[in-house]
Structures are given as C-alpha cells and as structure tokens.
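Input chain follows. Return structure tokens only.
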Amino acid sequence: MKKGFTIIEVSILFVIFMIVAILVAPLSLDDTIQARNTSRWRNVQSDFNNIFYSVRTKMEDGQQDFKTAFFSVMDNEVTGSLKPYKITFFNGDDPSEAYTFKDYKTSFSKAVFSVKMFDEPDENNLQGYLMYDVNGASRPNVWGKDVFGFNIYPDKLEPFGQDKAFSEQRADCSKNGTGLSCSNYYLMGGNFD
C-alpha cells in the first residue's frame, strides 16, 4: 500500500503548475494594467469637464476667444514638457498625420497630453484634438490601451468614437482596429478583450 507521492511525482506536478502559471500570468497582468488605465481614463472625465467650465467662463468674460481661453486653462495643468515619443494604433500601425501630436506636456497627475488645434474649424465646428496618455510616457503607448482622445468643440469635449455605433466602437477597440474609439467605448461600459 502506497502512502504519499514520490519525489518524481511531486516534481512533475510542480513543473506542470509552473508551466500553467507562466502561460496565464502575462494575460492576467495585461488585463490588470488595462483595467487600471481604463479606470484612470474614466476618472479623467470629470477633470476635463471642470477644465472646460473654466474655458467657457473665460470666454463669457469676453476677455479671450475660444483657442486663447482653452490654451490658457490647459497651461494651468502643465508641470513640464516632454519630447514626443512613439504612439501606435491598437493594431500596431503608425497613426495618420491627423493623430500624430508634437507638443507633449506633463500634468500634475503625471499623465501626458497634447493639443492639436486646426487653423480653421471643420464643417461640424470641430476645433481640434486632445491626446491624453493616462500613464505618461510609460509603455504601452497605444491608442485604446493607455492613450485616449477628445474632439475639441467650442462648447464641449467629446471622446473619440462618440459619433459611432457601439458595435463600431467595439470593432475599432480590438487588435484589428485603431483604438481611437476606445476613448468612448470604455466610458460606455465596453470591456477590453
């Protein structure tokens, strides 16, 4: 009658558990990091509503036009400048010129943001784009993972993708998409896959 395991049996079980742990750990770590970055993005929304309230107040005082007021308020959030670093789309492609930013600023929360204002508003009165990297220059530096964005209008900030159906946002917020729509998709309760 056998009582217990031999050292070989215990060693085999240990090796099997280690292999499973090595295969599963990176997936759960990626999910944890993504959940933290998504949570940071959700928390930033109220901060930007307050920033935009300040922009409107400066404009209503009649002292500044929209762009001047916007940059004036954003300058209050700046703690320093940063050299531009590479940010990619979710699918690994390089962003088009429209979503490439040059003037990177660090904020009090150690995030990085950049604003790109157009020379002239488009037909929908879109004034420009705001890029926000929730974890600063730390990797992954990917749209939809740690980098999110707003469309800038004179009366509101609108997360990228808000004008798309939820199913389109989900498709864009995947390994085959750009990740731009993740900015709104996560705010609407979408999950990362």
